[in-house]
Design a protein that fits this description.
Number of strands: 9
Shape: elongated
Structural class: alpha+beta
CATH topology of the domain at 94-179: Translation Initiation Factor IF3
Distance between the termini: 148 Å
Helix content: 40-55%
CATH superfamily of the domain at 94-179: Translation initiation factor 3 (IF-3), C-terminal domain
Number of helices: 6
Oligomer: single chain
Amino acid sequence: MSRPYSPRTPPSGASFTRVNGKIRAREVRVIDTEKKMLGVMSLSEAINLARTHSVDLVEIAPNAVPPVCRLIAFGKYRYELAKQEKESRKHQHANKVKEVQLSPNIDPHDFSVKLQKAVDFLCEDMKVKITLRFRGREMAHKELGFQQVDKFTRELMQYAHPDAPPKLIGKGINVMLTPLPRAKRAKNPHQAERDLELAAERAAAARGEAPPVSDSSVESESEDELDSNLEEDSSEANSSSEAGDSSGENGSSEANGSLPEEESSEAAPPPQEVNPQGSTMGEVPA
């Protein structure tokens, strides 16, 4: 029972390839396993030749007269076809578009970062779309936005050319940059640094030494050591202050405990002797 509708995903090109008995032509032009032309022969002779070599007869050019067939294993043929498609897709970066967004009052550091990103995209054969957005009262100073876009495009003249001059569309300025050919395009400066680092790492690995440490990693290690030393000093200072507070509290408590005894001893009057007649010593009887 056939399907009432066609499948959603179209089959690949290898699925339309006719093999062996599915080839409809009476005569075919045959290519052997070493890619040498054997000439025109009947279909039955070509199939028998493929069987003697333990391979398949694959139709590679069905529109030719007569059709061209090759002696090759069908699985190997499909693998080679997929590999060719993958290699062709690697060189289709020009169809990809990357967007870089700017603002009229962009910081110089942010401007340089976005510029380097655009250089990386262009060196990978990708188009770059520059977009500058105005917000609120910034629309009153459109000339500042055009100045930023012109400055950005001038910095990229060694890597790309604009398809058209910048245009104001709505609340933004847009311009599309197309990468120059590899022969006319400048090299990516960051890529040269990366290549040097990779070469140094490979040379160190070949000599059996440790890879060279970059300046950034050394700075990060020194900062970590300083932070750890500061933490140790602060912990020691806290512990000493806590010990001093505890000793001070103990001393004050001891002093406070001894004070009431001294005060009570000073405040208590000396005892007086009493005579048998009932009068105290030192007093004159009435």
